[in-house]
C-alpha cells in the first residue's frame, strides 16, 4: 500500500479499494487470493460471557438512568438525545412501539418542523404537578395516567358515541372536583412521593459479584442462559433491519402514524 492505494502484485496498476484490486487480479491475471478463515473456536474461548453480560447491563442501566435524570430535571434536550441512543437498543430487543416513537421524535426534531416549533417540542417534555425540584413527570407518562382515568370513568361504555360523550365530560369532572375542594375549604395535597432507596440492595449485589470475581476477566467463562450472552458493545449489529421497519411503518398521511396491513 502506497499513498493510500493498493498495488497489483502482477502489474503497475493501483487501486483505492482492496475489493477492486481482487477483482482486477482475478479477471486480468487469473489469480484468486485465498480466503482468510477466522478461528471462531479460539475467539469463543477468549470471550468471557459473564463479564460481557455484566458490562452490558451496566451500560444499559447508565443509559436509562440518564433518561430518568433528564426527565426529573426537566431537560428536554437530554431526553431527545437519549432517544437517539435508545433507538438501536429498542430495535435490537424487538420493542416496535418504542422504536417507532423514537424514530418519530428524532424525525420531528431533526429539521422536519420549523425551528420555533422544534424548540417548543424539545423544551416541553415534562410536567410538574406537585411543585418543587425533581418532581417532574414525562408528558407521555402523564398522558398514560389520563388515559387510565378516562377508561375508569368510561367503564361500561362500549359504543363510539358513549365513549366520546364520556371523554368530553371528563375535563368538567376535574373542574367540579377543584371547585368542590375550594367550597369545602379543603387544603391542597402537600404530600410528596419519595422514591425508595436501593442502596443496600445494590451493595449486597455488588458484594456477591465481587465474591465470585465477576468483574475479573476470565477467558472461557460462560453462563448457563445463552440468550443473555451478548457482546460488550450494545450497539453492535443493532441497526439490522431498522430501515425496513421504518419503511414499513412510515406515515401515509402527514402528522399521523398508520400501519399498513399489506406489509
Q: Keyphrases for this structure?
A:
extended; 263 residues; two-stranded antiparallel sheet; two-stranded antiparallel ribbon; mainly alpha
What does this molecule look like?
This is C2H2-type domain-containing protein. InterPro entries: DUF6589, Znf_C2H2_type. Residues 8-29 form the C2H2-type domain. It holds the Pfam family DUF6589. This protein has 263 residues and is mainly alpha-helical. The protein contains ten helices and four strands, in the order E-E-H-H-H-H-H-H-E-E-H-H-H-H. Helix content is 55%, strand content 3%. The strands form two sheets. Strands 1-2 form a two-stranded antiparallel ribbon. Helix 4 (76-92) packs across helix 5 and helix 5 (96-112) packs across helix 6 (115-123). The longest helix has 25 residues, at 49-73. It is extended and about 95 Å long. The two termini are 47 Å apart.
Strand order of the largest sheet: 1-2
Helix content: 55-70%
Query: Got a strand count?
Result: 4
Largest sheet: 2 strands, antiparallel
CA radius of gyration: 28 Å
Mean pLDDT: 77
> Kindly, what is the distance between the CA atoms of the first and last residues, rounded to a whole number of angstroms?
47 Å
SSE pattern: EEHHHHHHEEHHHH
Query: Which percent band covers the strand fraction?
Result: under 5%
Organism: Mytilus galloprovincialis (Mediterranean mussel)
InterPro entries: DUF6589, Znf_C2H2_type
Domain C2H2-type: 8-29
Protein name: C2H2-type domain-containing protein
Amino acid at each position: 500500500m502506497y499513498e493510500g492505494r493498493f498495488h497489483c502484485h502482477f502489474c503497475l496498476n493501483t487501486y483505492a479499494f482492496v475489493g477492486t484490486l481482487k477483482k482486477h487480479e482475478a479477471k486480468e491475471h487469473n489469480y484468486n487470493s485465498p480466503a482468510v478463515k477466522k478461528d471462531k473456536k479460539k475467539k469463543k474461548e477468549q470471550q468471557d460471557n459473564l463479564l460481557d453480560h455484566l458490562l452490558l447491563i451496566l451500560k444499559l442501566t447508565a443509559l436509562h438512568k440518564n433518561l430518568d435524570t433528564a426527565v426529573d430535571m426537566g431537560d428536554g434536550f437530554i431526553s431527545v438525545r437519549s432517544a437517539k441512543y435508545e433507538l438501536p437498543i429498542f430495535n435490537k430487543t424487538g420493542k416496535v412501539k418504542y422504536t417507532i416513537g423514537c424514530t418519530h421524535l428524532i424525525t420531528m426534531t431533526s429539521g422536519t418542523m420549523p425551528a420555533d416549533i422544534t424548540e417548543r417540542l424539545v423544551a416541553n417534555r415534562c410536567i410538574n404537578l406537585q411543585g418543587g425540584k425533581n418532581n417532574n413527570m414525562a408528558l407521555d407518562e402523564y398522558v398514560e395516567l389520563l388515559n387510565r382515568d378516562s377508561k375508569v370513568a368510561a367503564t361500561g361504555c362500549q359504543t363510539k358515541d358513549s365513549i366520546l360523550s364520556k371523554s368530553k365530560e371528563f375535563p368538567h369532572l376535574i373542574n367540579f372536583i377543584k371547585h368542590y375542594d375550594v367550597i369545602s375549604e379543603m387544603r391542597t395535597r402537600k404530600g410528596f412521593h419519595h422514591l425508595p432507596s436501593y442502596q443496600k440492595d445494590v451493595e449486597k449485589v455488588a458484594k456477591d459479584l465481587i465474591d465470585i470475581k465477576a468483574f475479573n476477566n476470565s477467558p472461557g467463562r460462560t453462563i448457563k442462559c445463552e440468550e443473555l450472552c451478548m457482546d460488550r458493545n450494545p450497539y453492535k449489529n443493532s441497526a439490522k433491519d431498522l430501515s425496513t421497519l421504518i419503511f414499513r411503518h412510515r406515515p401515509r398521511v402527514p402528522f399521523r402514524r398508520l400501519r399498513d396491513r399489506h406489509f
